[in-house]
Structure formats: structure tokens, C-alpha cells
Amino acid sequence: MHRVAKALFPMSSEKIFRVALRGDGLLTSPRWNKGTAFTHEERKAFGLTGRLPSRVNTLDEQCERAYAQLQARDSPIRQNSFLQSLKEQNWVLYYSLLSRHLRELTSIIYTPTEADAIANYSHLFRRSEGMYLTLPDQDTMEEDFLEQTRDRDLDLIVCTDSEAILGIGDQGVGGIGISTAKSVIYTLLAGIDPSKALSVVFDVGTNNQDLLDDPLYVGWPQRRVRGKDYDNFIDRFVQLVRKYHPHCLLHFEDFGVTNAQRLLEVYRDEHSVFNDDIQGTGAVTLAALMAAVGVTKSRLADQRYVIYGAGSAGLGITRQVRDAIMATDDISREDANKMFFLMDRYGLVKSSLGADKIRSELSEFVRPDEEWQDVPANEKGEVGLLEVVKKVKPTVLIGCSTKGGAFTEDVVRAMKEGCDRPIIFPLSNPSRLVEVDPKDANEWTAGKALLATGSPFPPAKMPSGKDYIIAECNNALIYPGLGFGSMLCQSRRMSDSMIIAGARRLAALSPALEDPDNALLPDFDDAPRVNFEVAVAVAEQAFDEDIAGVSWKKEHTREKAKERQWKPVYGTYEPDEHGGY
Ligand SMILES: NC(=O)C1=CN([C@@H]2O[C@H](COP(=O)(O)OP(=O)(O)OC[C@H]3O[C@@H](n4cnc5c(N)ncnc54)[C@H](O)[C@@H]3O)[C@@H](O)[C@H]2O)C=CC1
Ligand SMILES: CC(=O)C(=O)O
Ligand SMILES: [Mg+2]
């Protein structure tokens, strides 16, 4: 989208804009459209008088009407479509409505409902929502990129190759829906100006046979391209971002497990890149664990960790927590690694499984076979979760396996036998894939489990009759702040210490600090404040490490962050005689 209007003052605090659009052009621009909120003076000045009914509405009234229209949609997926179309009409109204019903509507535009919207993308398709880069068209990538980004000052690009979407696997071109949803969350929770964000899908084919067989599938109907051709395609794009938008944060979302960590390692020293499933999930889980060990009055280093599902999220969490243990408790990497027991679809990650099953990235965490000789295994020599729990007596059990119900009653009860306050985080999304319903885990542990989930769940009842609020340990509670902090200070990269600083700030806001029976993490309704605090901590850390790229000083971080935030409020428009820019 080309810029057609300019703010007289910086975007966040200004109220007056000179706008070059008129008539239908203005009404069909989601960035500038106000619908019935255009004043009579504006209607005259911009050729809108005959295009709108007479009454001028306030934003409050518009939100009230839109909310009633939304509620008339009888299913979450229809509500998702309604909100998608509202976004295409009027950004201020869309974001204002979401902000007013944050918890309720986040579940519609993000997990769990967005997973269904993505799975049905080709059937729900109405219009473009970002940049579709298809592998066979790569020779025109630079032209296509400039077509959409020329004259735009981008702060953020969210991209996906759609191989591991939200726990529902390979979704081909429909994965653009996760790029846009994550980008919306950046605006909603961190105030990123939506006109400075771009959503991208890399369509490198799909191995989802249902999509390949679907005549209405709108993506490139070929099997996934891998290897050098894939790497070159992604690299072309990253180099374009570096060339034209050197300060823009490049956020990777839902890449497959064979590419996610690898790409992060390749690019993280070159540019400010961030992998949300690895780093965002690692950070929010670290914060929840810090809060949980606060409740049990122990240290991260005192725990025994079973991580069930050793993919991007599982390994990201493991490394993040391991690094925090090393940094906090002066423990060697080798000793810290020994605290973790990783599991995947073939059971415990142990040495006899061999390189065909164990990805090289897991090598630090492979358990020696000798340790498991006395433990029952199946005919393939695989050790299951119940056996691992009985032997290890974990104090922490984290699920990111996409295996709904994997934490069975036997497993949870066995864990409770080994420790008084089991810390159980079934993090898989969407809700139907959760490893254990938190209500059950609470019941099987007589209310002793400290719980957090990836998608929203209703409170569980404690034996006292009090509600136990299930913390939503979703990376959305932290990634917008991590990203905003990095954009704000234009850090050359997103360092591990910046991420740990963000996690510490989030943990310091835990309601469980006030009362151990409270939720481990702040309520999602508080996510904007929380992400703001995270952003400030992250940017301040970048100054401390001397990787901030701005000329202002560290002590101005908070005020700069406030100034920079985009808010969904209408300004006053004046015609721009000179055609804007
Ligand atoms: N709460 C949050 O903020 C986040 C939650 N997630 C969720 O975590 C889950 C995994 O996501 P990613 O790590 O990105 O995917 P991934 O595909 O990288 O990892 C999944 C891992 O689980 C393993 N797995 C599959 N079936 C299994 C089984 N039956 N038993 C044990 N392991 C099994 C896979 O082999 C793979 O290694 C998804 O449901 C995703 O939605 C992911 C990122 C953030
Ligand atoms: C939350 C998220 O990033 C995921 O489920 O993949
Ligand atoms: Mg994700």
C-alpha cells in the first residue's frame, strides 16, 4: 500500500492528518476509513456527503454495533471471518473492538480459531492479505517485494513456510493466516503500526495430501521443496530484507522442525531475526517456570525437567531454561543439560536411537543408554512417558508434542507421587491437542499442580472451592514485547540476554508473587501492559550490550516506547492539496 496521507505529528500522539484520498478511495482504505465516524466537515471536505448516511457515530457506538454484529455469528469460525472482513474495512474500528474484548476476541483471531481458518483457507479465501512468494516465481521476487514495500518504512515482517502451523502441521499457502494473526497481535499488544508490518508466506509446496487433492486449493500444488533450492529461496528473501529494510525485525513463525533452528542460526548474527516458536515460547515458558519455582520456594536449578515433544518449541524451551540456569546459578552447561529429559514420538531421547531419529540439534540432551537399562521398554527399545516419569520423578513436565491427551491419569498421578507440587505445562495448541485438560490435572493432583496451557482454558477448582486460574503460557504474552523492544532501539540482532531480560520482566509481573494460589502468569487482559514492560526491558538490555542502533539514550527508553505506539483512535483529517506523499 502506498502512503496517501501523512501525520502532522508522529503517529502515536497526533490527532491531525493531512489526507490526500477522497470519496470511495478514502472509504475503501482500511488505514484511513472512519465509516460513519467521519464528521460533517470531513464529509464535505472529502466528497463523502452523499456516500454516508447522515448520522455521525462515535467510535464507541461503532464498536457497540460491530460487537452486536459479531455476536450474531453463531460459530467461532464465522466470527473469525467477520473480523477478517472488518479488518479489511477499518483498522481503527477493528483494533479498537479487539482491545475492548481482548481475551474473548483473541481466541477468535488467534489460537484456537485461527487454526481452523487456516485449515480452510482455500475455501474461505476472499482477498490478498500479504505477500505470497511462490518458489517457481522466485526470479521476480525483488520486483514483487518492491511492488508491495516501495515507499514503506517497514518495522516488522512476519513470515512462515507453513510447515508446522499451530500444531496442525503443513498448511501450504494457508499459512499466511498465521503471519497475519501474529502481526495483528503485535499491533494489539505492543502498538506496532499496522501500516509498517508485512505478512509473508513462502509457498514452497505442501506435503498435505488433502490440500494437494483439493481442486480449490489456491497454493502451488506440488510437494514441498527441500534442500538447496529451499535454502536459496529463503536466502533471496532475507537478503532483500537486509538490503531494503535493514532495521526491520524479521519474525519467523511455524517453520518445520528441520528448518526452524537452522535458519535462526544462519541469520541471527546478520540481522535482527527472531523465531517465535523457539525463542518466544522459550521465553514465556521460562517466565512461567520462574513464577512456579517462586511458589515452591526452590530454584530453576533444583528441578528435574521432562520435555515431551522435542520439536521447535520443546528444544527452544529446553535451551532457554538451560541458559537461564547457567546464567543464574553458575552451573556448567554440561551439568545443566543433565537436568533435562527430552522425549519425542519414539519415546525418551537416548543414545541407542541413533542419528536417523535424533536430530543433531538434540545431541547435547541425549541420555546415555546405561542409565535406562533397568527400565521397561517396548519391542523397539523405546521408553515411554510413564516409565520416564516413574524413574526421573520430574518436578516439571512440559508438553509441546501435538499429542492430545498424552499426559494420562497414570502419568499425572505418578508425577504427583514423586513431588508435592508438580509443575505441569501442556502447551500444545489448539485446545483439542492439549496434552492434558488442566481441569483433570488439577483433580488428579488434588489441586497441587501448578498449571499453564498454550490456549485459553476455564479456571479449575481448588479443594478449598476457590478458582485456580490457568495461566495462558502462550508466546503472545511476550513475543510482541520482545519484538517491539528490538524494533524500538533498532538492535542489530536479538541477543539471548535481551530475551532473558524480557522473560525476567514478565516473571516479575506474575500474580503468583502476591498469592501462590494465583495464576502463574498475568491475565491475557493485561497483555498490552505486560508486553510494554517487556519491550522496555529488552531495549534497555540492548543498550547495556551496546547493540542498540538509535541515537537517543537508554534512560529515554520508556518515553520513546510510549511515543512510538500506534493506538486505534481516529484523528482529525484535513485535505492535502498537494497530494500527500
Ligand atoms: N504455547 C505456545 O506459546 C506454543 C505452543 N506451541 C505448540 O506446541 C506444539 C509443537 O509446536 P512446534 O514445536 O512448533 O512443532 P514441531 O513440529 O517443531 O514439534 C513437535 C514435536 O513433537 C513431536 N511429536 C509428535 N507426535 C508426538 C508424540 N505422539 N509424542 C511425543 N512427541 C511427538 C514431533 O516429532 C516433533 O518433534 C504445537 O501444538 C504448537 O501449537 C508451539 C509454539 C508456541
Ligand atoms: C503459539 C504458537 O506460536 C504456536 O502454537 O505455534
Ligand atoms: Mg507458532
CATH homologous superfamily heading of one domain: NAD(P)-binding Rossmann-like Domain
Q: The CATH topology of one domain, please? A: Rossmann fold
Strand order of the largest sheet: 10-9-8-11-12-13-16
- Largest sheet properties: 7 strands, mixed
Summarize model confidence as the mean pLDDT: 95
**Radius of gyration (Å):** 24 Å
Strand content: 5-15%
Q: Got a strand count?
A: 17
State the share of residues found in helices, binned by percent. 40-55%
Helices and strands, with pairings:
Elements: E1 5-7, E2 16-19, H1 23-27, H2 40-45, H3 59-71, H4 76-89, H5 91-100, H6 102-109, H7 113-119, H8 121-124, E3 131-134, H9 141-149, E4 156-160, H10 176-190, E5 197-203, H11 209-213, H12 227-244, E6 249-252, H13 260-267, E7 273-275, H14 276-295, E8 305-308, H15 312-329, H16 333-337, E9 340-344, E10 347-348, H17 385-392, E11 396-399, H18 409-418, E12 423-426, H19 438-444, E13 450-453, E14 460-461, E15 467-468, E16 471-472, H20 479-488, H21 496-508, H22 527-544, H23 557-564, E17 572-575
Parallel strand pairs: 2-17, 3-5, 4-5, 4-6, 6-7, 8-9, 8-11, 11-12, 12-13, 13-16
Antiparallel strand pairs: 1-2, 9-10, 14-15
Helix pairs in contact: 3-5, 4-5, 4-7, 5-6, 7-10, 10-20, 14-15, 14-21, 17-18, 20-22, 21-22
Bound molecules: 1,4-dihydronicotinamide adenine dinucleotide (NAI), pyruvic acid and magnesium ion.
Residues 164, 166-167, 257, 277, 281, 308-314, 343-345, 400-403, 406, 427-429, 433, 454, 473-475 line the site of 1,4-dihydronicotinamide adenine dinucleotide.
